[in-house]
Amino acid sequence: MQRFYNSELSFKLELNVNSDSRVVNKHPLFRSIIKLLGFYLVLGLGGAALPANAQFRENFKRDFQQQCQRARQAPGANLSEITEYDRRLERAYVLPRQNRPSLVGCDLRSADLRGANLGGVDLSAANLSPRTSVSRAIVTEVPANLTGANLSDAKLDYTNLTRAILVNANFRGARLYDTNLSGAQIVDASLEGAFASYVILYGANLSGSTLSLGNFSSARMTNADLSNTNLVRANLTLADLTNVNFNGANLSEANLSGANLTGAKLIETDLRGATGVNLQGAQLCRTRLPDGTVAAPNCAMTDNNPSLEARPELF
Asked: If you ran DSSP here, which 8-state letter would residue 130 be given?
């Protein structure tokens, strides 16, 4: 009993004499009380915040749906302006202030975006593939229509643009990393300076388009139509170009290191100054080679239409 009294007295004296918080916190009793109070404080604050978080999520979801709906039927609309959804997105993830509106993950299948301004818009993982409908056993597919759309500097990484109509579209400086453009109509479009590494262009029609200075490394272009395209100084390293139609295309100073040109048609194609060119298995006819010489200058023609009726030599 005496020992207990002495220890209790010494503890009280220690508190009175030395009230430093470090001494108090060393005692097990105080540490336990502080932990307990902290637990209930966090629990109380967390419980109070739950309704607010739920409301925030609900508002966020509603704004997202409105953002996507706004883009589904907006021919000629300006979708490059920041909206309340974009501001909420910045606050939610503590993002730096930016001027890039977001349509990330939106379902835009069969959307009508003809002539719309999507400059700088983030369309990563957006779905613009055809919307399939079945009516009385008749299956129809309506692709997204982005004819004349401005997508300059837009971010379209992993976006699904299968069979989309992109005639006269502007992709200058856009990001198209692993973007699916299979079967898309990209006629007379501009992809100048686009970053399109691993882009998927199986069977796509890019005739008459400008792809100069673009990065198409490891692109998948089997059976694509790139006739009469401008590919000056384009990066096509390791690209799959099997059976691609390059008739009348300008590939001068392009980088074709490791590219597969098996079955590619190179009728009246300009390859002057191109590097890493392997023409094994390619079809040549009046083809301007990297050193400036002309391959198969006397190839047989019919109707004076080399792009359609030439009987080229197999290199």
From this structure: P
Distance, CA of 129 to CA of 126 (rounded, Å): 9
- Report the residue count for the chain: 315
pLDDT tens-digit map of 106-116: 888 888 888 88
Residue-wise burial string across 33-48, b where 16 or more C-beta atoms lie within 10 A, e elsewhere: eeeeeeeeeeeeeeee
Query: Comparing C-alpha atoms, which of 267, 271, 250, 269 is closest to residue 305?
Result: 267
Nearest to 177 by CA among 190, 189, 161, 164: 161
Q: State the residue for tokens 């739920």.
A: 54
Cβ count near 253 (within 10 Å): 18
Q: Which residues in 209-248 are b (16+ Cβ under 10 Å) and which e?
A: bbbbbbbbbbbbbbebbbbbbbbbbbbbbbbbbbbbbbbb
Helix (H, G, I), strand (E, B) or coil at 135: strand
CA distances from 315 to 61, 63, 87, 117, 266 (A): 57, 57, 57, 45, 10
Contacts of 187 (CB under 8 A, 6+ apart): 167, 168, 205, 206, 207, 208, 209
* Residues 6 or more apart whose Cβ sits within 8 Å of residue 42: none
Q: Is the model's pTM score more than 0.70? A: yes
How would DSSP label each residue in 251-299?
Answer: -TT-B-TT-B-TT-EEET-B-TT-BS---TT-EEESEE-TTS-EESTT-
Report which of 60, 179, 190, 66 is spatially closest to residue 119, judged by C-alpha positions. Answer: 190
Tell me how crowded residue 49 is: count the other CB atoms within 10 A of its CB: 11
> CB–CB of 298/279 below 8 Å?
no
For 151-174, write each residue's pLDDT tens digit: 999 999 999 999 999 999 999 999
Closest CA to 230 of 215, 252, 198: 252
d(CA 279, CA 281): 6
Query: What is the bridge-based pairing of β-strands 283-285 and 265-267?
Result: parallel
